[in-house]
Amino acid sequence: MKIFQLLEMYSIKPETLDTFTSRRNAFAKLGSFGKKVAMAAIPVGFASVAGNKAYAATMEPLDVLNFALTLEYLEAEYYTKGLAASGLIPAGKDRAIFELIEKHEVDHVAFLIAGITASGGTPVSKPTFDFTVGGAFNPFGNYEQFLALAQAFEDTGVRAYKGQAANLMSNKALLTAALQIHSVEARHASEVRRLRGLKGWITQNERGAGMPEATQAVYNGENNLMQGGVDVTTVTTIGSDGITESFDEPLTKEEVLTIAGLFIAA
């Protein structure tokens, strides 16, 4: 399934993505860059995402859940493959954490499928994923790469759920279901970031130490100081770092699908 099939599935017009880099171009950039970078610092393929919120569009509640299901398929398969890779995840605390996260993601997939079906919808089929992005990465052969991708996926997932909350306001049951998953995804993101020696939350729009420049688009917009139409710097003295750590920002579905599309092979 290619990116434009995803866009059609979620009622996104391809012309709204004129400011985004195509998946083919992203592959070319990643392929040339990935071969030159040390294994511990290889980039993650998110450079094609632009921080333009002008392209936001609405989706029906069941479409939102299928959108979420696509992301949960991605995360569940990623952790399942990571755990199956011999010697990748260190025994002890790290492995125990990822075993639990993998169970959560598998449960999220089952939960969303059941919820979509019970609501009269048809769950989207699981795509075929390529976590190497055409050979640019080796996340199942290098633990630092595995952690970097895990952080990018989890941080993206938190912002993705937040970006769709408004589209679920008309259905309280589905909104509640999405929020139940959203809070757990936020816990995953915090835990993975701490495994990498980072704060559990995001400061300004910083991607964090060890995350290459190619991941910056995942964090663009997180330095927002305006909340609810209020410049928060005018009502507190904690400073801009503390303000940005206090609020997470949404991603539009266009941005999220462009990110996910890099890892979808068919």
Polypeptide structure, described:
The chain is mostly helical and 266 residues long. 49% of the residues lie in helices and 2% in strands. The chain is built from 8 helices and 2 strands. The chain has a two-stranded antiparallel sheet. Helix 3 (61-84) packs antiparallel against helix 4, helix 4 runs antiparallel to helix 6 and helix 5 packs antiparallel against helix 6 (172-195). The longest helix is centred in the middle third of the chain and has 26 residues, at 93-118. Mean pLDDT is 79; it is low at 10-56.
Descriptive tags:
266 residues; 8 helices; mainly alpha; globular
Strand order of the largest sheet: 1-2
Computed Rg: 18 Å
Q: Let me know the number of strands.
A: 2
Described by the principal axes of the CA atoms, the overall outline is globular
Oligomer: single chain
Q: What is the element string, with H for helices and E for strands?
A: HHHHHHEEHH
User: Would you tell me the structural class of the helices and strands?
Assistant: mainly alpha
